From TrEMBL:
Domain Gfo/Idh/MocA-like oxidoreductase N-terminal: 15-132
Name of the protein this chain belongs to: Inositol 2-dehydrogenase
Keywords of this entry: Oxidoreductase
Assigned EC number: 1.1.1.18
InterPro entries: Gfo/Idh/MocA-like_OxRdtase_N (IPR000683), GFO_IDH_MocA-like_dom (IPR055170), NAD(P)-bd_dom_sf (IPR036291)
Top-level class of the enzyme under EC nomenclature: oxidoreductase
Species of origin: Kineococcus radiotolerans (strain ATCC BAA-149 / DSM 14245 / SRS30216)
GO MF, one example: nucleotide binding
The keyword Repeat belongs to this UniProt entry's keyword annotation: no
């Protein structure tokens, strides 16, 4: 028997969230407060008390089992923010339950896993969106609009970088996280800012420079990736886990008629002048830097569910970015460039 619905406006979309960790906490608060048409109904997390602690103050209920959440009649859509290894199974389970799905990236650790999620959601006729939040940040959205309008001509060189502020617990970081958890955002951004072009070659170099003592365990924390496209354009993506000055995300598109630069300016109007010079405050986390973008992507998801249409970011978009991430793993293993069309389908990010 399904759990009785919580009190709420039946005209809103009931959301169940799976995973009460750091990003799940942020998403739950956004859904409860900032996303139009959304009603946070329930939170699931297997850790005793974690779901209730997050859900209670937000007017939702907490449960320990995702199955219990999916069985609720008042849950129309599910937001998956659980551990990465659980993403693919949760996407399929939600689709089988007839729920629309928003899944944090990556939505699978192999193309086969992601393909199963895409197939399940398409068979169920439910919306499926993957969390590439940079598309919803105003400066990135403005850059895409400028590309579409032809303001910089034909893109020739693209660059995207992510530098995370620290690596507090290297032992908890998956071996290939630099590609499938961090740079996957940069890959999606590059693909999105160069519409209509397809990657034909991926070459990655990576090392353990932040926590070298964990290199033998397979952890890589610094990487540079070169991507060549079928129209001749070249992109570079880089990542590092030791930006002690704050969370650093930037991008650039150089074209035949101009250049777009994203994220070069300070993200706050606050400036401090003292004996050491001029200082600008730097965001310390992705939630701080991309708070509005996170709200924007969830707003898009809820709107797509309510309007019965495909979200702006689909499982197929996620597949393209994951294909490059997996190609990076293959490139590091072989020491040379690889064709993503040939190798990505043979790689599983769980295998070191």
């Amino acid at each position: 028997m399904s759990t009785p619905p919580v009190d709420g406006d039946a005209s809103t979309t009931g959301i169940g969230l799976v995973g009460a960790g750091r990003i799940g906490t942020s998403h739950a608060r956004l859904l409860a407060i900032r996303v139009p048409g959304a009603r946070l109904v329930a939170v699931a997390d297997p850790r005793p008390g974690a779901a209730a602690a997050l859900a209670g103050p937000l007017g939702a209920v907490g449960v320990e089992s995702p199955a219990e959440l999916l069985a609720r009649d008042d849950v129309d859509a599910v937001v998956v923010t659980a551990s990465t290894e659980a993403h693919a199974d949760l996407v399929e389970a939600a689709a089988r339950a007839g729920k629309a799905v928003f899944c944090e990236k990556p939505a699978g650790l192999s193309l086969a896993e992601l393909d199963r999620g895409i197939a399940a959601t398409e068979a169920a006729g439910v919306a499926f969106q993957v969390g590439f939040n940079r598309r919803f940040a105003p400066e990135f959205a403005a850059a895409r609009a400028a590309v579409d309008a032809g303001r910089i001509g034909r893109p020739q060189l693209l660059r995207s970088l992510t530098r995370d502020p620290g690596l507090p617990n290297p032992a908890a970081v998956p071996a290939w996280a630099v590609f499938v958890l961090t740079l996957i955002h940069d890959f999606d951004t590059i693909l999105w800012l160069h519409p209509g072009a397809e990657p034909v070659s991926v070459y990655a170099v990576a090392d353990a420079l932040v926590a070298p003592e964990f290199k033998e365990a397979g952890l890589l924390d610094t990487a540079v990736v070169t991507i060549r496209f079928d129209d001749g354009a070249i992109a570079v993506a880089e990542a590092n886990f030791s930006a002690g000055y704050g969370y650093d995300v930037r991008g650039e598109v150089f074209g035949s008629a101009g250049t777009l630069r994203i994220g070069e300016e300070p993200r706050t109007a606050l400036q401090l002048f003292d004996a050491d010079g001029r200082h600008s405050a730097t965001p310390r986390s992705d939630v701080e830097l991309f708070g509005d973008a996170y709200a924007g992507e969830l707003t898009e998801f809820v709107a797509a569910v309510r309007e019965g249409r495909r979200p702006a970011v689909t499982g197929h978009d996620a597949r393209r970015a994951l294909s490059i991430a997996l190609s990076c793993i293959a490139s590091v293993r072989t020491g040379g460039p690889v064709d993503p069309a040939l190798v990505a389908g043979t790689v599983d990010a769980r295998i070191r």
